[in-house]
Design brief:
Length: about 280
């Protein structure tokens, strides 16, 4: 990006700075036109689900392509955007990510393009960058390294896409993944600690289930033990949801684990995790 383009980009971002602290509208129809323009021009992050669902993806994809140095009018991107209505909303993002990935693959400055996408002002653009990790063909350890920046992203939506991007690779190499993720549970960033738990949830949300951990959840016990008294509510909820998932296939194991944790770690954090972890079992009882 030359100096003139960089200056223009900085001016565009400055023009929407006053919108960054907004509260999201509780209905799509109530989103201000100025906010919609900023979102679709790739200058703003979404602040709630309504804004995310209101995105005009063809406009946003072309804006982002221009920002990162790709041809916004390329036939590859145009073909993808034309077929988007045939897919469900989240699938549309995956197709856009793939089109941008293919364009970047033949770009002379591929690494620079990737960096601009990964650091883009739009959370949707950073989600597309996270999805590139799934397309990379890298070994598992390298994929986890590549996705780490997205696991720590300030935006909740990017963090969700981050673990989804490596879920299949983790399932294919589960034992290796459980070892590689162990240091993540001791990271200073709660987003990173939560990633280790959320990524390996036996059931998870909007993703392929991990049948091996539904059958043998104790295989992930080293990860869970490290987080049983975590001081972050974000992490606590993930661990509790992990165990609640497991309780649907291995209820006795989860019940015994909860009792042991309370006996060994009688802290507010552990009590909260165990109480939420046993919610399905409590309803059944």
């Amino acid at each position: 990006m030359d100096a003139a383009a960089a200056a223009a980009a900085a001016a565009a971002l400055a023009s929407v700075a006053h919108l960054k602290g907004r509260k999201g509208a509780f209905r799509i129809a109530l989103i201000p036109p100025e906010v919609l323009r900023g979102l679709n021009d790739g200058l703003l992050e979404t602040v709630n689900l309504n804004e995310f669902l209101a995105l005009e993806l063809p406009q946003l994809a072309r804006s982002v392509a221009r920002h990162i140095g790709l041809d916004a009018e390329s036939e590859r991107l145009a073909d993808t955007l034309a077929m988007l209505p045939a897919f469900k909303p989240m699938q549309r993002h995956g197709h856009i990510a793939r089109a941008l990935y293919d364009l970047a693959a033949v770009h002379a400055e591929r690494d620079a393009v990737a960096h601009r996408l990964a650091t883009h002002a739009s959370d949707a653009a950073r989600c597309w960058a996270a999805q590139w990790v799934a397309l990379s063909g890298l070994p598992l350890a390298a994929r986890l390294d590549a996705v780490r920046r997205f696991a720590a992203d300030p935006h909740f939506g990017v963090r969700e896409i981050a673990w989804m991007a490596v879920r299949d690779a983790v399932i294919d190499a589960l034992d290796e993944a459980l070892v590689l993720l162990q240091p993540w549970t001791a990271d200073a960033d709660p987003n990173i600690r939560r990633f280790a738990s959320e990524l390996t949830r036996p059931r998870g949300v909007w993703c392929v289930q991990i049948e091996a951990l539904k059958a043998e959840p104790w295989r992930a016990l080293p990860l869970l033990e490290a987080l049983r008294a975590d001081d972050s509510r974000y992490v606590q909820n993930s661990v509790a949801n992990w165990l609640n998932d497991a309780s649907k296939t291995q209820p006795e194991w989860v019940d015994r684990l909860g009792a042991r944790w309370l006996a060994e770690s009688d802290t507010p954090a552990t009590r909260y995790i165990v109480r939420r972890a046993l919610r399905t079992l409590g309803k059944q009882a």
